Amino acid sequence: MIPVTSFAGKTVAVFGLGGSGLASCHALKAGGADVIACDDSAQKMAEATTAGFKTANLRDVPWKDFSALVLTPGVPFTHPAPHWTVQLAKNAGIEVIGDIELFCRERRSHASSAPFVAITGTNGKSTTTALVAHLMREAGYDTQMGGNIGTAILSLDPPKLGRVHVIEMSSYQIDLTPSLDPSVGILLNVTEDHIDRHGTLEHYAAVKERLVANVQRGGAAIIGVDDSWSEAAANRIEQQGKHVVRVSVTRPLAQGVFLEGNGIVSASGGARVEIATIDNIGSLRGLHNAQNAACASAAALALGVSGKALQDGLRSFPGLAHRMEQIGRKGATLFINDSKGTNADAAAHALSSFGDIYWIAGGKPKTGGIESLREFFPRIRKAYLIGEAAQEFAATLGPVPHEFSKDLETAVPHAARDAADSGLAEPVVLLSPACASFDQFPNFEKRGERFRDLVMALGSVTPAKEASL
Description:
Elements: E1 11-15, H1 19-30, E2 34-38, H2 42-50, E3 54-55, E4 68-71, H3 84-92, E5 95-97, H4 99-110, E6 116-120, H5 125-138, E7 142-147, E8 163-168, H6 171-175, E9 184-187, H7 195-198, H8 201-213, E10 220-224, H9 228-239, E11 244-248, E12 256-260, E13 263-268, E14 271-277, H10 287-302, H11 307-315, E15 325-330, E16 333-337, H12 344-351, E17 357-362, E18 380-386, H13 390-397, E19 402-406, H14 408-421, E20 428-431, H15 444-456, E21 462-463
Parallel strand pairs: 1-2, 1-4, 2-3, 4-5, 6-8, 6-9, 7-8, 9-10, 10-11, 11-12, 16-20, 17-18, 17-20, 18-19
Antiparallel strand pairs: 12-13, 13-14, 15-16, 15-21
Helix pairs in contact: 5-10, 5-11, 8-9, 14-15
């Protein structure tokens, strides 16, 4: 835990008592603050009381006693309208911040030079965060990973010299971190998302840009420049005198890091050098993962990782569960769990990464269906349709071979059988549903876990850790 000493002797309101909110309560109390906790859920309020915190309906207390409101990122800050706690705080002239802001203040107070990598982007945040943390650990660094990827930041070990904090940040978290100042900031990409919480794409992009705009002096702003929003951000930040490392996986750069074949190349002052290769690294298949790898490599090098340690770390990266996760092989057939592919855009990344696909798709349908995936239909040997979207997907697939499998219990053995009988050099059984899971599973994780279990139950499957993938 990271004790928050910046509010010692003061009273702080905390609204939202999920994982990060309760961690904030513990950290503030450990640092000497008096905490008043609140949540819309009576159960969460009871849990906080049991944990030893004062609880109150924040509508019924005098706000003049508070020094700050610590808000959970899941609560609207600006759009579609400020949460009632935000409005009360503004009326009282009280600052509204999040748990990562508390971390930033502790770092500045106690270990301002401690390495801090902050990562954002519309897509790829979690994979890049996990990859940077993996690279740093494999290179021998004391590494803490958290934020939006899972562990609340204040539940991590405190910042200190030699300890690296690698933190994934959503736009909601950036909004609540006014003094965000990483030593290395990564902005992967910006595409339209979360407009309901930011009002416009322009505002959403501006929030994302703040993460890299405020890197510490001497630090690095690593920015993927393959979309117009991020490229414009890179230009503005460089004009402000910050060190910008541009990254592209679609074109060579005169200055920056780019993909050339399977090589990650760094160009500077007319010189070009391959810093790493992602050839035959199964966990980093696809152009989207090439961007993740290039940005993570630039961050690792900026933090002092050697070229050899970087390459070794890339090769040993296991990937994230349910994100093009390699389950294993049965004979020539490779099984891939991409249960996180909950819409067509996400499924496109997986479909573009393989040929000869036996595709398991369907679930609770999203707007637009799979019409946008037509360019990948020639890669699909057969589709196995499950859940509520099966009929809709079949209509879109048209002449592409398909069957109505209804559920994973039917789809997995059928796809495995057909792939084995195909005689192809490397058939791929791919779960990338392009749908939400809620018709048959509580979440995409449970869906992916069931797929994994069914694959292993086929027998004679060599797990990914043992197979040469």
